[in-house]
Amino acid sequence: MRQYVTMLWPTLSTIRGHTLHVRLLAQLIANGRWGHAYLFAGPGGVGRRTVAQALLGRLACLQPASDHADPCGTCRSCAALNRNQHPDLTVLERDGQFIKIEQVREMTNRLRYDPVVGRIKAVIIDECDRLHEAAANALLKTLEEPPPATVFVLITAKPQALLDTIRSRCQMVRFGELSPVDVAALLQQGGVDPLVAQAASALAAGSLDQGKALADPAKIAVLDLVAELGLSLGARPAVEAAFWPERIGKALRSAKAVEVTADGDSSDNAEPLAATKGDFSRADLQWAVEALRAVLRDALLTCCAIDPSSLPHARHKPALLAMASRVDPARLAEVIDSLTELESSLVLNPNPKLAWTAAMTVAAQKLA
Questions:
Q1: Would you state the pLDDT for residue 258?
Q2: DSSP 92
Q3: Dihedral angle over CA of 249, 254, 256, 262, nearest 10
Q4: Is residue 199 part of a domain?
Q5: Is-above-0.90 flag for pTM?
Q6: Is residue 217 classed exposed, middle or buried when 0-12, 13-18 and 19+ CB atoms within 10 A define those classes?
Q7: What's the CA gap between 16 and 10, in Å, rounded?
Q8: Are 298 and 324 in contact (CB under 8 A)?
């Protein structure tokens, strides 16, 4: 039996989540019926590009087993991928706001030649919805008459922004969000503390990118503050809730300052930790409500005899147990429902901070 070598390059067997997609792609490979162009559509940070890399790496492999979805790991194509220096792989990313026609033309010229080290020529076009109009038209011509032994994977969160003619020439694969369990596991693989990974994954909205951002120590400190305040509802005077926005806003600004100091500039992925100066923003309030609802949901599960060690906010086990021992589960459920309503109302409320203060005061009174 052939022994497969562990690769640095992504492989289908190591993909976390997206089980049905991986199974479908593996079946297409096994049947030798893969297409020349795919459109990977779905939210960012869920692994679309990783799956694209795994697919193209397997198709480029010179010594694949027909019954195995992974490349051999030893041929010259696999070696080139592991060095991240594969001459047959082209990646297009936006240059500024758009992917420009010059980039597409350069790619097209490269595709005129036979593969150098692999079985195919592979193209990944990330954020393909950012194709400039002229670039999109140039790409369309290539997709209409694809060069031999070429496979394209277009990646986007906005498939509706593409030309209908481009979409129609690709096999669409729709990706959903990762589960919190998968996000936590992937964060741990990257060296994040398990309990921190659990907390970050609860608010990551199924995105590994957001999970990584939230797992930053400065931002975990903000989550911890929200958890501390939320789990104190009913145990402290209700009037204290009026001062929460200032406390959380200050923590958010500190987290943002750490990010800017580390990166030299603010990141495009700074949301939901958006506060940089001045008052607590509407977006920050909405995020704080979501974070608060998540920790109170864990408290409600603890009330229902769920071991808090298995919950996203396991780091706050003593506080979860303390709240569960003193509050009425029915009242806690009412508070969680009211926070859902509050999050929706913050979108249009002319005074979101006042709405937050009123809601927190009522919640504290209910749980007292």
A1: 60
A2: E
A3: 180
A4: no
A5: no
A6: exposed
A7: 11
A8: no
